[in-house]
Amino acid sequence: MFRSMFTVGGFTLMSRILGFVRDKMIATYLGFGAMGDVWAAAFQLPNLARRVLGEGAFNTAFVPIYCRKIEEEGDAAANYFASRTITLMFWILIGLALLMFIFMPQVILATNLGFAQDATDPETVVDRFPIAITAGRITIGYMIFVCLMAAFSGVLNSRKSFGPPAFAYVVLNIVMVGVLLVAPFFYENMLKPLCWGLIISGVAQLAVVLFGISRSKTKVKMVIPVIDQDMKKLGVLMIPGLISAGIQQLNLLFGGLVASLATGGKALIYFADRINQLPLGIIGMAAGVVLLPEISRALRAGDTYEAKSKLSFGADMAILLTIPAMMAMLVIPRPIMHAIFEGGAVAAEDIAPAGKVLMAFAIGMPAYVLARVYQPGFYAREDTKTPMRFAIATAIVNIVLCYPLFLWQGAAGCALATSIAGWCNVALLWTRLRKDKFVTLSKTNLSRYARMLISAVAMGAAIYYLAELGEPWIMREGGFVIRMLALLLLVMIGIAVYFGFILATRVFSIRELKRVVKRG
């Protein structure tokens, strides 16, 4: 299982590094102000649909049924089931995209309340609302390609083919970086080429997973979807998943909506979250993608102990890898954001509020990944209703906290509300899994987690001190390459200190770490 997680995590790391290059270039051209807000709003719409329809509700309902079809009825029945469901999804996406294109002004207003104030505010330099409508009508086409890509990825993941789906996200960023390199020769404003570049990348991503499908045993094709017992069961399982995934995204959506009340607030949320998502995507996506089919297969085989073991292993790895990333973003958020984004349209004075937002997101980092680990414990048992109820409770917490925290800390308050809500979700998921006797927390676990935390604190103290010493290089204006080399050196030292303490405090021995790498 670890090797599968490593495959997904490795490609996701490549994607995140290229995504970092992409977002650095976007920030350089658009900045943390009004145009950055517009891009964040336009990109948010198809990305939201991907997380809810593709990676969220569809895969959590589809993968367990598809795995059961393979094991109980064979490849032909599984392929026919996949063909019907993906064909139906295609037509639903077409209809949804057309509706959103027509009603884009209302969609933009519903998700970016602050944009409506620009036309009447005498201090407004750029009216974000009409620009966002045009940009949103272009980017919504990406929703069709990326959701289909996510659906085909579910088929491949169920067959333990994790490479093509993970590589598809690398392709997204390769295309986007290419557009950002070429477009400045032809365009003065980079917003429109960015939006069209997103459409091109969607086509390329879908092509990658279709190539993976063509090389597998799976024969998925367009058919006339028949609403039989299987499709009804999928629909029943998807409805709670849609609500659950939708409510999870509502947390971020509501935060962005409130943040849009201040010019630049949505951009700050977007760019800080992109850095926050670097470790989250690598660890969280790898764990969630691999665990669901792995646990589903174990349960289908009647091996409950193995299913529990895989879930416990996923939680241990999530905590081991997220705690140091969280600590780094808590102790040196401003140097991180300055080293990465200062320059072009991003002035040095924009960095301090961006650092505060990153710190607020970092508080919830382990919670986000643990939720991705624990949710397959429900979905693999075809229980999508329990996570849905917990997601509703989580959304209520976020909505109640978001605006008061915004008044207190601006955009950072919105990020903090999201983090607090994330921890509430994890507490609910873990409590229910413990009640179901699917997870336990022994004294050994507690001792191990405490030593991980001690190791992370030691690492945090080291990089805080070194960041102070390295301020002339990390916090300089200009000299992006020098800043990044200094930050990279700091990260490498931090990793060495952390894992040095992990070994010194015997969280894992070298032999155990070798077994972890070989496991799976």
Q: How would you portray this structure in words?
A:
- It contains 21 helices and no strands.
- The chain is 82% helix and 0% strand.
- With 520 residues, it is mainly alpha-helical.
- It is globular.
- The longest helix has 40 residues, at 34-73.
- The mean pLDDT is 83.
- The chain has helices at 2-30, 34-73, 75-102, 104-111, 128-139, 141-158, 163-182, 191-214, 229-259, 265-300, 304-331, 333-341, 351-363, 365-374, 376-379, 385-409, 411-435, 443-469, 471-474, 480-504, 510-518.
Distance between the termini: 4 Å
Low-confidence stretches: none
- The averaged pLDDT comes out at 83
How would you sum up the global shape? globular
Q: Give me the secondary-structure category.
A: mainly alpha
Biggest β-sheet: count, sense, barrel? none
* Secondary-structure element string: HHHHHHHHHHHHHHHHHHHHH
- What is the count of β-strands? 0
| Proportion in β-strands | under 5%
Helix content bin: over 70%
Rounded to an integer, what's the Rg over CA atoms?
22 Å
| Number of helices, where a helix is a run of at least 4 consecutive DSSP H or I residues | 21
Topology, element by element:
Blueprint: H1 2-30, H2 34-73, H3 75-102, H4 104-111, H5 128-139, H6 141-158, H7 163-182, H8 191-214, H9 229-259, H10 265-300, H11 304-331, H12 333-341, H13 351-363, H14 365-374, H15 376-379, H16 385-409, H17 411-435, H18 443-469, H19 471-474, H20 480-504, H21 510-518
